Amino acid sequence: MLVAWALSLVNPAPLRLRRLGYVRQSGLLHARSRRCRAAWAPHLTRAHSVIIAATEATARRRSVVVLGSGLLDDVPLDALADLFNRVILIDAVHPWPARLAARRHHNVALVTAEISAGLTDPGLLEICTAADLIVSANLLSQLPIVPIEAYEARGREAPPELGTQLIETHLAALDRLAAGTGRVCLITDTVQRAEDRAGRVTDSLDLMLGVSLPPPSQTWDWEIAPFGEIGRRHRLIHRVHAYPDWRTARA
Known about the structure:
Oligomer: single chain
Largest sheet: 8 strands, mixed
Number of domains: 1
């Protein structure tokens, strides 16, 4: 917790987004990703391969947009910077490791935006519409977290359908983008299950909050919290769905 707290202090972000809790959430994710580096490695490798496959299938490579770029752990930034004229990373918080990585490439730009709003900002929509490839990487299930926590921080209960609406809004935006001239690549965790050391499932959670997704091109398990992270006797595993071509998946 001390690491997450320290990161929340040093990671830059507009005051409005800081007050909403995005910097705190980024710090928690950053700290967990470092603690669980070995457990996350297979998932990150698979995510990289899906994004690279989507890149190789993209005919024009003028610009690529990454929604929810975050720490860039699941984004093959070097490959994207080599293959595209311009790489645009969009997130509410760009932690210092991501900023330093971006500085190594002359064609990488950072855009700070609250993606949970559904890409309704005209400037953000213009950037995405002009892109040849749009990547939504391990973002979809995260969209409801900060908005719901913002209600709870004010001592209020979030509207029961808020999380579902945010997920549906993001998917609707991806549908519109996929209907244009660009390719959309979606990677998202869909179900969380808790397992004990005997491999028994002790609990499960629908991360899509009831929203249905089409059959994925690839699936795999992501050990997001290995034994010892949340307790000695349990671990958390997320089921991941990958869609290198969202338009085809939706057809």
